[in-house]
Amino acid sequence: MRVVATAPAKINLTLDMVGRREDGYHLVRTVLQGLSLRESVTVWEEKEPGVRLSVVGAAVPADERNTAWKAAAVFRRETGHALPGLGIRVHKRVPVGAGLAGGSADAAAVLAALDRLAGTHLRTDELCGLGAQVGADVPFCLLGGTAVGTGTGTILSPLPDLPDCWVAVAKPPESISTAEAYRRIDGAPDLPVSRSAAMEAAVCSGDLTAVGRELSNAFDAVTALSGVEEIKRVMRAHRTLGCQMTGSGSAVFGLFDDRADAERCVQALRVRWADAFLCRPDPAGARVEG
Ligand code: ATP
Fold this sequence. Notes:
By secondary structure, the chain is of the alpha+beta class.
């Protein structure tokens, strides 16, 4: 049996640093939104023992360093389902190193696919527990929709869906690792004032204009990646309700209530940046397709 599963990329509507754990991990408060830009994986049993992983669409390592591989290893270890021979094909659509959680979406999709393949019928919270062992964004990619993330981002509280809107996303070529982005946070004299509570209120009241106004991201304020401000200028010229970098970058998103504005914006972005997408908020988390 071949199982195809998909999982959403995410954007951070807010991303505040609220403290440090004793082990040095940053504690955050973030409002996350899943996008219709989704990763897709195909998983099947193989006769030969071991994991055979292939990745289509991006140059990322297809071995034990890959989040899809890590998710399979965690699933086998924690559920006791040996699945001795496993084939995994990852179809990447989400740009790498973008702050869009593409690697986390791959891991989430693999967990959803293996749950079906092995017939384990795990609850979402159980899958999230496995996902958190792979990466902080994996539980959100499993859950999807709109949610507040606390702790290292893995403790999730769902929020109401965003009102219907369009999301333009573009990634400039330059990006930095999440570890380097946190180093820049640690070296910054000031971070933006937390806007997560105001954002949560805006989401709960279904006020898209307020959502656009309350966008904030501590990384956006300190990383100064080249291309980010130019992308924002294009988005503002097309009447975005608000735009900013997602996660540790370098992708930038802009919210639009008008479809034609959003389409024209993405066309204008594509002239300069190949990684430009028109998306919508997606209420669905990782799921098996077909
Ligand atoms: P996040 O918002 O979760 O930090 P990101 O968009 O910044 O996500 P990814 O593209 O998910 O970052 O991952 C970037 C790094 O992870 C790269 O160094 C890449 O080699 C490694 N990686 C491992 N597995 C994957 C995968 N399945 N897809 C993409 N990158 C992967």
